[in-house]
Amino acid sequence: MTLSIQTAKPLFLTALALCAGLLAPPARAEEIPRLARRGDATQLLVDGKPFLILGGELGNSTASSLPYLEKQWPTLKALNLNTVLAPVQWDQIEPVEGRFDFTVIDGVIAQARAHDTRLVLLWFGSWKNSMSTYVPAWVKRDGRRFPLARSADGKVQEILSPAVPATMAADAKAFAALMTHLKVIDGDKRTVLMIQVENEIGMLPSARDHSAAAEADFQKPVPAAVLKATGKTETGRWERVFGPGDATDELYQAWTYGRFVEAVAGAGQKAYPLPMYVNAALNRPGVAPGGYPSAGPLPHLYDVWKAAAPSVFQAPDIYYPDFTRWAALYDRPGNPVFAPEADQAGKAEAPANAFWLFGQHDAIGFSPFSIESVGDPAGNPLSGAYALLGELTPVILAHQGQGAMRGFRPPVGYDGTVDAAPQTATMGDWTMKVSFVDPWTPKDKQLFAGHGGLVIQLAADEFLVAGSGITLTFGEGVGLERVREGRYVDGQWVEGRWLNGDQIHQGRHVRLPPDAFGAQRVKLYRY
Ligand code: DGJ
Fold this sequence. Notes:
single chain; alpha/beta; TIM Barrel; 8-stranded parallel sheet; 6-stranded antiparallel sheet; binds (2R,3S,4R,5S)-2-(hydroxymethyl)piperidine-3,4,5-triol
């Protein structure tokens, strides 16, 4: 699809300045942030090198006002984030059709640069949490050109119908203008690393849209790509191939949303090819589609979304307690693992989830929601966790995709039950038992759900152990040749205390106390 982008004044001026050589030229193609396979992992490359997002997502309205955002930076810096996830809203950048105003997003980028922080921008376009409240007034008020979705009983919803080409074209045009602008103002500095396209897409309160456009669409033959993604050989209409019911309705809706997103993302990437993703509002187990926002990039719809929108990857917003279960469902070949909304910031489980996600799933990033709302940021466990993960970043990145890392944390059930039973893992020639109940702290003073860490095999007989509240034992006949506390400074190990005696229980265990985040290097031997 070719889109003509009406040139806005600020965009025109920046383009002119660029031609006149007043601004640095855009990045060479290989320097633009991109995704790359390494072993069985997908990494995010920034400035040509792998990057780990230690992030936090701003509350929805925080970045809409520059003075308001400015006040949040002390908190963001105290939390040791390296990346902030911030919305860009369609109504703010295109208040009048075809006239773009990038003042606010330019200011957001300038503030991020001043605070030495990168950005992931969230395109609040046609949909934000299912609804269409971030679209400009000229879209909201023109229901003929931009029809809304309808539920099964025919009721109009405040949700733009994704089956309408005019809506798709308008969203894609605005998004392409944004990406064109970003290329001009940020192509050289690359403060912006990635883009989320729309936000938590999902149909409510029915499993699919019943507007006139959607009804007509639903009677057409199932596209070949959907048949392939679902392994069907039969052809014909949706209900003929898949049978009538909610599951079929949701599948159709997922395909329709996915095609819309692909058109928007594709138009943006044509202008400036940053990595892009879609985020999912996860489905409550046991609830029918429509009872939850139906047809988003959910685990059970992964394949149809991938077929519909190959230009984006898929990421879960995990607010349910069973973080590990949901995250694992998005670790699929070629899909980078990213938690853009890892529950609310300030939750005691956040650090353990971060260590686990990086260690177990080679994640490109972790980011709790409403990050600026954390009280006492310097004293929040996430601050210490991110400080340590920041130091470890070069080591983690060097071991991604090599099968040499593991993450450990007690799994939590959907009902919040914590399973603090020890876990066993084999790495190389060694088997380790990881316990989450600290042996030397009264049990009633421990929050097991907050305990966790990662282990990296550095050499045949040497491991890096990092995190908080975990204790490792290695079985009979395996001794601790040496255990060193330490830090990584600019990627180099700087040794601290030699841990022995009581600190390793006279050779019986390696322990990361629960009241802090620490790293130890451990060399094993057999006796
Ligand atoms: C998920 C959404 O994606 C966010 O924008 C925000 O609305 C949170 N829910 C609120 O918990």
